């Protein structure tokens, strides 16, 4: 918003208005202070999620959600009342801490509570709600920008308190997961009652036995962050590191952070840019709904691969349009600007039914209970780290290599799609406590896991994998 940039980032405002400057369109919003404001949230989230891992493991998923929601509320107060850049950065840091706790605990909570046959759809609901939040935020920005007095940005920043309050109050009434009840208290009767309520049947003994077995193993694991680096957890570690890394190098945060900036760079006016962001989020939201419907039917791999191809074509198309039609000191024709918008809608839709929701679902599925909180923390930490790097560097990179930026993103998507095709097994409908089977059957991972099994057999003198 012009009023926001004029007050807190006057240099950026002057550049975008061409007031006494001659700056390339690609460089109009390039400001170190602006990127610090944007990306400080993510470095705070990175630190917070590492702390959240031990709290989630020791005190439960619900406690982490309560902490995250409370910090969200406090952070939004500083945003709405901001009078200088340090207050705004404090707002972003507090929101980052809230994100660190909630992104670490909520996907874990959903995965542990969901029935195996619906786990994908329920976990995708997490991404759907994120997409709805972005959509509502963009709609809010569009309308409060019409406030002529120029204080609409205060509403934008303070409204984070509303969903945060719902989250905090709602978490008070949530039960803990059966996995954590058994892990913390060993109360199998309480866990069985909760499982029967969740599954709608009394036939839960097999699942309960699996949970007890996983919990007994978890109790012997004192240092999950150290243990996740053991050879037998090598597949899970690779998945927990690379899936969130690839998630971020798709370029999705270019859309999440800088969509209005991008569309203004292309020559659209302030209101048109904000409205364009609403349109892209609508596409993402519909795609999230589609993902919820099909993820447990078609599986994770197919969605990863289809979404990857869709994003590759989109990024290369945007790069080609900008290279051909967008000059440093001339506005792009509106028809080409709107063609970029349409292509970006295709891109965010591809992300929203593949890498968006599956980034949190798949690592939570494949990590056994004894390293699950550590695995989820690694996922969130990598997301935040890469989000910080991209948020801190994107405007500078855009200014330096211009349209080639989108070819770089497209190249990364090619690499990650190939990774999924070669190294990611299908995980749909398999109980989380039996997930280790997929590694023993995979053409690549069975070599690593098989060596570990042979070592166990040699030590114990009997088969570590009965029946196989």
Automatic annotation (TrEMBL):
The keyword Membrane applies. One of its GO terms (cellular component) is membrane. Keywords: Membrane, Sugar transport, Symport, Transmembrane, Transmembrane helix, Transport. It is a multi-pass membrane protein. GO terms for molecular function: symporter activity. InterPro entries: MFS_dom, MFS_STP/MST-like_plant, MFS_sugar_transport-like, MFS_trans_sf, STP/PLT_plant, Sugar/inositol_transpt, Sugar_transporter_CS. It comes from the Eukaryota. It is found in: Membrane. Its main location: membrane. Pfam families: Sugar_tr. The chain crosses the membrane at residues 33-53, 65-83, 89-110, 122-143, 155-174, 237-258, 278-296, 303-324, 336-362, 374-394, 406-424. This is Major facilitator superfamily (MFS) profile domain-containing protein. It comes from Urochloa decumbens.
């Amino acid at each position: 918003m012009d009023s926001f940039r004029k007050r807190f980032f006057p240099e950026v405002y002057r550049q975008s208005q061409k007031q006494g400057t001659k700056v390339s369109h690609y460089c109009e919003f390039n400001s170190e202070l602006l990127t610090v404001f944007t990306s400080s949230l993510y470095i705070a989230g990175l630190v917070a999620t590492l702390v959240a891992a031990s709290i989630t493991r020791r005190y439960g998923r619900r406690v982490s959600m309560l902490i995250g929601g409370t910090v969200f509320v406090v952070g939004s107060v500083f945003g709405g009342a901001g009078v200088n850049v340090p207050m705004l950065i404090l707002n972003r840091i507090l929101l980052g801490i809230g994100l660190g706790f909630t992104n670490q605990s909520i996907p874990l909570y959903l995965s542990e509570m969901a029935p195996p046959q619906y786990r994908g759809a329920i976990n995708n609901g997490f991404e759907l709600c994120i997409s709805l939040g972005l959509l509502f935020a963009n709609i809010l920005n569009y309308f409060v920008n019409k406030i002529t007095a120029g204080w609409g940005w205060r509403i934008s920043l303070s409204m984070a308190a509303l969903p945060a309050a719902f989250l905090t109050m709602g978490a008070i009434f949530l039960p803990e997961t059966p996995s954590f009840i058994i892990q913390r208290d060993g109360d199998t009767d309480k866990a069985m009652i909760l499982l029967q309520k969740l599954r709608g049947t009394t036939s839960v003994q097999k699942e309960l036995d699996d949970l007890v077995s996983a919990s007994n193993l978890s109790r012997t694991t004192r240092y999950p962050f150290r243990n996740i680096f053991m050879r037998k957890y090598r597949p899970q570690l690779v998945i927990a590191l690379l899936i969130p890394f690839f998630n971020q190098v798709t370029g999705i945060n270019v859309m999440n952070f800088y969509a209005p900036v991008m569309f203004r760079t292309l020559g659209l006016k302030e209101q048109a840019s904000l409205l364009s962001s609403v349109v892209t989020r609508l596409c993402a939201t519909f795609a999230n709904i589609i993902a919820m419907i099909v993820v447990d039917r078609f599986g994770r791999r197919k969605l990863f691969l289809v979404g990857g191809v869709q994003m590759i074509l989109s990024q290369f198309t945007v790069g080609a349009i900008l290279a051909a039609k967008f000059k440093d000191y001339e506005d792009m024709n509106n028809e080409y600007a709107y063609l970029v918008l349409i292509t970006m809608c295709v891109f965010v839709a591809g992300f929203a039914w593949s890498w968006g929701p599956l980034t949190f679902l798949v690592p939570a599925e494949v990590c056994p209970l004894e390293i699950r909180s550590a695995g989820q923390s690694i996922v969130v930490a990598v997301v935040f780290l890469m989000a910080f790097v991209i948020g801190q560097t994107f405007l500078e990179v855009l200014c330096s290599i211009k349209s080639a930026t989108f070819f770089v993103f497209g190249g990364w998507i090619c690499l990650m799609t190939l990774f999924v095709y070669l190294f990611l097994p299908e995980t749909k409908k398999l109980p989380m406590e039996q997930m280790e089977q997929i590694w023993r059957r995979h053409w690549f991972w069975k070599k690593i896991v098989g060596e570990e099994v042979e070592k166990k057999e040699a030590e114990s003198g009997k088969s570590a994998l009965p029946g196989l």
